[in-house]
Specification:
There is one protein chain. This protein is an all-beta fold. Helix content is 0%, strand content 49%. The chain has no helices and 11 strands. The strands form 2 sheets. Strands 2, 4, 5, 6, 9, 10 and 11 form a 7-stranded mixed β-sheet that branches. A 4-stranded antiparallel β-sheet has the order 1-3-8-7, with no helix packed on it. The radius of gyration is 13 Å and the shape is globular.
Length: 124
């Protein structure tokens, strides 16, 4: 069965860095687009970043452009999100999400599997 397991969350200071990982299993990882989405307390879901199955294209939310970098290692079936220059407003539960096809978009209906999430808290 499809499994997406996030790790790497935790507490970081403003200006600090964290690297999230998502270990995928139960499907051919290299054939699917993947994204990171987040939800802060009391706020709606935000699509943070996505990457095509072969890594040929990516997208970023305006709120994280220039600070976050998405990548994937298809040999290791793992998705990453490098988060630098963290801000308190980055505090949220971060989800790894599988697309239904090889592309990655910000359309919720185009995703079918979600991980359990990893908490990121940015605070001094």
């Amino acid at each position: 069965q499809v499994q997406l397991v996030e790790s790497g969350g935790g507490l970081a200071q403003p200006g600090g860095s964290l690297r999230l990982s998502c270990a995928a299993s139960g499907f051919m990882f290299s054939s699917y687009g993947m994204s990171w989405a987040r939800q802060a307390p009391g706020k709606g879901l935000e699509w943070v970043s996505g990457i095509y199955s072969d890594g040929s294209d990516t997208y970023y939310a305006d709120s994280v452009k220039g600070r976050f970098t998405i990548s994937r290692d298809n040999a290791k079936n793992t998705l990453y999100l490098q988060m630098n220059s963290l801000k308190p407003e980055d505090t949220a539960l971060y989800y790894c999400v599988r697309a239904r096809s090889w592309v990655a978009t910000t359309t919720p209906n185009e995703y079918d599997y979600w991980g359990q999430g990893t908490q990121v808290t940015v605070s001094s």
